[in-house]
C-alpha cells in the first residue's frame, strides 16, 4: 500500500485555515481537526474534564459539565503557566485521537492526511511527522477583522490570542507551501487549493464548489 501523503496545515486565528481544510476534504483528503478534537475532550463527559477540574477547580467547569471556555480563556491568556497546565492535560488526549483517526484513514487507502493543527509551528515534533507544511496566511488586521466578525471576541481579546500564537514570520519560515488568503474571494481561494492539490495525491474532480 502506498503511504498517504501527510500534510501539516496551520495558520493564525482568522486566516481561513478551516476553510482550506474543508476544501481539501472536498477533494478526498482526511482531515484530522485538532480544534474539533480539543472541543470534544472538553465537552460534557469529555476525557479531559476530570483532570481540568482537579487542576483548576470546579469553578472552571460549567453546570453542564463542560470546560468553561470563557473563564479559562481569560485566565490562560494572562497566565502563561495556566495555559501550559491546561495544554499538558489536553494535548496528549488530542494527539492520541489525531493519530487514531489517521491510522483509520490510511487503512481505508485515503491518499492524503491533513493534520489541521493550530499550534503546529509551536510543536517541533509535528514538522518531523508530516511530509510538508501548508500555511494559510493573511495580514494581522485581516485576522482581527475576521475573528471579531465570526465570534463574540473583541479586538483586545483577538490581539491577545494572536500574541500567544506563533508569529506570522515564524509560520512563514516553517512553511513549505503558502496560500495568501488576503482580499481574495472563496472561488479564488478554491483555485489556490486546486493548484496545490495534485501534489498531495488528490483528485480535482472531487472538489466541492465554495459556498456563496
Could you please describe the fold and organization of this structure?
With 212 residues, this protein is of the alpha/beta class. It starts with a strand and ends in a 15-residue tail after the last helix. Helix 2 (34-41) packs across helix 5 (80-107) and helix 7 packs across helix 8. The chain has helices at residues 17-26, 34-41, 49-56, 69-76, 80-107, 124-129, 140-150, 155-164, 168-174, 186-197, and strands at 5-10, 30-33, 112-116, 132-137, 177-180. A five-stranded parallel beta sheet has the order 2-3-1-4-5, sandwiched between helices. The protein is built from ten helices and five strands, in the order βαβααααβαβαααβα. It is 51% helix and 12% strand.
Keywords:
single chain, 212 residues, alpha/beta, 10 helices, 5 strands, 51% helix, 12% strand
Structural class: alpha/beta
How would you state the average pLDDT, rounded? 90
Specify the overall morphology: globular
Q: What does the main sheet amount to? A: 5 strands, parallel
Radius of gyration, in angstroms, nearest whole number: 18 Å
- Helical content class: 40-55%
Number of strands: 5
* Stretches with pLDDT under 50, minimum 5 residues: 206-212
Trace the largest sheet across and list its strands.
2-3-1-4-5
Helices, by number, come to: 10
Distance between the termini: 39 Å
Strand content: 5-15%
Amino acid at each position: 500500500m502506498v503511504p498517504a501523503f501527510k500534510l501539516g496545515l496551520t495558520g493564525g486565528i482568522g486566516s481561513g485555515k478551516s476553510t482550506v481544510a474543508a476544501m481539501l476534504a472536498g477533494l478526498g483528503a482526511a482531515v484530522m481537526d485538532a480544534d474539533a478534537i480539543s472541543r470534544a475532550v472538553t465537552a460534557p463527559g469529555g476525557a479531559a474534564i476530570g483532570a481540568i477540574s482537579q487542576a483548576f477547580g470546579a469553578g472552571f467547569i460549567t453546570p453542564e459539565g463542560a470546560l468553561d471556555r470563557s473563564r479559562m480563556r481569560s485566565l490562560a491568556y494572562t497566565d502563561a503557566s495556566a495555559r501550559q497546565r491546561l495544554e499538558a492535560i489536553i494535548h496528549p488526549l488530542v494527539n492520541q485521537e489525531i493519530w487514531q483517526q489517521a491510522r483509520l484513514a490510511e487503512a481505508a487507502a485515503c491518499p492524503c492526511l491533513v493534520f489541521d493543527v493550530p499550534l503546529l509551528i509551536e510543536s517541533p515534533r509535528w514538522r518531523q511527522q508530516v511530509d510538508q507544511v501548508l500555511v494559510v496566511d493573511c495580514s494581522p488586521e485581516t485576522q482581527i477583522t475576521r475573528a471579531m466578525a465570526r465570534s463574540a471576541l473583541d479586538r483586545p481579546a483577538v490581539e491577545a490570542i494572536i500574541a500567544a500564537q506563533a508569529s506570522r514570520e515564524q509560520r512563514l519560515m516553517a512553511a513549505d507551501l503558502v496560500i495568501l488568503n488576503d482580499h481574495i474571494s472563496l472561488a479564488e481561494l478554491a483555485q489556490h487549493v486546486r493548484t496545490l492539490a495534485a501534489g498531495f495525491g488528490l483528485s480535482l474532480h472531487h472538489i466541492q464548489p465554495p459556498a456563496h
